[in-house]
Amino acid sequence: MEFMEYLRELNPVTILLRVTLAIVVGGILGMERERKNRPAGFRTYILVCLGATLVMMTNQFVSITYNTGDPTRMGAQVVSGIGFLGAGTIVLTGRNQIKGITTAACLWTAACSGLAIGIGFYEGAIIGALAMVFTTSGLSGFDAWLKKRSKYLDIYIEYNGNKGNFSDFLQYAKENGFEIKNIQVSQDEVYHREGGKQNCVSYIMSVSSNVKRTHAEMINVLSGAKGIKYIEEL
């Protein structure tokens, strides 16, 4: 216990330990995102965790040296401020798919891990980092399984410049036991490798099946509707 109390003090040994641990924890958290080629990767996570650690150590130093101030005040600013960096990783694609939410959440957690390391809460930082790695890597398969088991499906459909075909699609879907909701429509020029740029009417919608089907089976049935050029699950 005396050894742990020593490690929670602020001295050259513990400063080196905390900086090293921040690099290790940040690197571990960033490796999983790096493997998936996400906007924030290995070095970004190290810098976020290290920065949060330095902030917390500075706060502790000010509190001890000058015997004034709240030792958690600067840390609170990190927790709220990291949202600006995390928001930069969230993007909305042309097909209304939201990407980067998990990366933003991971960045926020990396900052929180850095704060824990910076104040000397080593146990919480290490256990939290392991839990985060388990969540992002170990539970990814379970997350995919849950999505595949869902009766709801978001799909993207393209027609070649003819909105009239869509009423036929709705009738076809109804006849085959589907319910269509949240329809979004747009008309754009889409590049196809076979025919270059083409005028295209595209639809994004939520679909549910009244008959028990896998997502692949739902796509296969819907692709049989007349006039569809392209269809995919979002």
Describe this structure in words.
The protein has a 4-stranded antiparallel sheet with strand order 4-5-3-6, covered by helices on one side. Strands 1-2 form a two-stranded antiparallel sheet. It has 2 domains: 2-146, no CATH class; 150-233, Alpha-Beta Plaits, CATH 3.30.70.260. The chain contains 9 helices and 6 strands, in the order ααααββαααβαββαβ. It has helices spanning 2-8, 12-35, 42-66, 73-87, 101-118, 122-138, 140-149, 165-175, 215-222, and strands spanning 91-92, 98-99, 152-159, 178-192, 196-209, 228-233. Helix 2 (12-35) packs antiparallel against helix 3, helix 3 (42-66) packs antiparallel against helix 4 and helix 3 (42-66) packs parallel to helix 5 (101-118). The model has no long low-confidence stretch (mean pLDDT 80).
